[in-house]
Sequence to fold (90 residues):
Amino acid sequence: MKVPLTLRIAAAVEAASLAALLTNLATVHLKPVTTLLGPTHGAAYLIVILGTLASPTPAAVRRLALIPGVGGLLALRRLRRRPTALMQEK
Fold:
């Protein structure tokens, strides 16, 4: 199954922004970093959820997208599986 570009970008931004937020929290905890990356992570999370809802994806992929932080990457992984396996899940 071809994965939409928007979903791939949003999943990468979601994971990268979470990693940066956690790194900032564990190290220097700069408020400007949190102020910038918090909304970025939230927007990417919402785009991942809306992207899976808007495309013809199985219910399992939609449920995976709801997991905060890594849900987008998990949904992409499931979408890249063989199409026959996806059709059996519906």
Remarks:
- The mean pLDDT is 89.
- The CA atoms of residues 11 and 72 lie 4 Å apart.
- The longest helix spans residues 31-54.
- The two ends are 14 Å apart (CA to CA).
